[in-house]
Amino acid sequence: MATTLSPAGASTSAARSDATYQAYAVLRTAFTVAPIVFGLDKFPNLMVRWDQYLAPVLSNPLPVTPHQAMYAVGVIEVVAGIVVLLHPRLGALVVAVWLAGIIVNLLLIPGFYDVALRDFGLLLAAVALQRLATRFDPRPTLWPLRRA
Questions:
Q1: Contact 130/89 with Cβ under 8 angstroms?
Q2: Which of 37, 71, 121, 135 is most solvent-facing, going by the fewest CB within 10 Å?
């Protein structure tokens, strides 16, 4: 089934029944919700003690504690989720780059290789979302910067 877009980029009902659009919608939802939820949890640490995932080689030079550094990480993750919601073509790229950084960080901590592998899978899913967004988000990737 061919997917058609209106001039404003909104999908037609025919497009919404297309498996490609459905995959895009699932990935967009996941990469909106997950970063926001995980980012917000960096403050109360209800799910996990997040600072254990920060490599000492990266946290030791910081002028703040690893726990305080996780506050900044949380803010960045919430912003990334919002960017995916508002501009998935750009947001998916931001999330993919962020996940690459997380993977490098995790590879510096012995015993977290399984989490790094899981995050590699998430990175691949973010790349897939970015590729799908080129079809369903008509704005250029750097749209906010190229409008002028």
A1: yes
A2: 121
The HSE-up count of residue 71 (CA atoms within 13 Å, CB side) is 4
Tokens 């919608």 identify what position?
Answer: 25
- Return the domain boundaries, the chain: 13-138
pTM of the model: 0.84
> CA-CA distance, 127 to 99, in Å (whole number)?
11
Query: Closest Cα partner for 74 from 109, 50, 97, 46?
Result: 50
Asked if residues 34 and 26 have their Cβ atoms less than 8 Å apart, the reply is no
Sequence-ordered strand ranges (E) for the chain: none
H-helix or E-strand spanning residue 91: helix 88-107
